[in-house]
Specification:
4 strands; about 200 residues; alpha+beta
């Protein structure tokens, strides 16, 4: 029976993971609706129900920013201050910051965190987030692509040809070190190519 529950949760995680993003990279409608319901949770029973949902998802994708935020928020609403702070600290170390906002809500203005804001631990976590938010400029421009229609979402480099490959919508282009680009695949789903979200 225990193994059946484990398998059930495993498949639940897979379903949730695949349902979060549709083929074009948009967040799944059902997931948005669940998120809105979790934000609207007011009773202890609702909070506990959505917290269970969040915790199961975090077993599969522990660094998902929205789920981390909701789990911390629900724990705070339930009065689980220590758990909420511990979870928020882990999320901050994973790169989650208060600049990742949901419905214009975050740790600094959400009423769910009102009892935590004066705590020393909470202030320390916010400082970690501020450090994470600070941009680090240690890079330099390698090249500028002249094609203004290019909507690059992923990049890869071939050291043999010394060419960069950029994924853009439904095509892939080759770019040399001067920024000159040529088509690697034709736009329009060549050879069954679907939307290129990463390289």
């Amino acid at each position: 029976m225990k193994n059946m529950k484990t398998v059930k949760f495993y498949f639940l995680g897979i379903i949730l993971l695949t349902s979060f993003c549709s083929a074009n990279g948009q967040i799944d409608k059902n997931f948005i609706e669940n998120g809105k319901k979790a934000f609207a949770a007011s009773t202890a029973a609702d909070c506990q129900s959505f917290l269970k949902f969040c915790n199961e998802v975090l077993k599969v994708i522990p660094n998902h920013p929205l789920i981390n935020y909701l789990a911390v928020r629900l724990n705070a609403l339930l009065g689980n201050s220590d758990i909420a702070l511990d979870q928020l600290k882990k999320a901050a170390k994973l790169g989650y910051t208060s600049s990742v906002r949901w419905y214009e809500m975050h740790q600094l203005n959400d009423h769910a965190f009102s009892e935590l804001r004066d705590k020393k631990e909470f202030k320390e976590i916010i400082e970690i987030m501020k450090i994470t938010e600070t941009p680090i400029h240690k890079c330099q421009i390698a090249f500028t692509v002249k094609d203004r229609k290019l909507d690059a979402e992923g990049i890869s480099y071939d050291p043999v040809e010394r060419m960069f490959y950029l994924g853009s919508a439904y095509e892939i282009v080759k770019v040399d070190q001067l920024g000159n680009s040529i088509d690697f695949t034709k736009e329009g789903k060549q050879d069954g190519l679907v939307r290129v979200n990463g390289m």
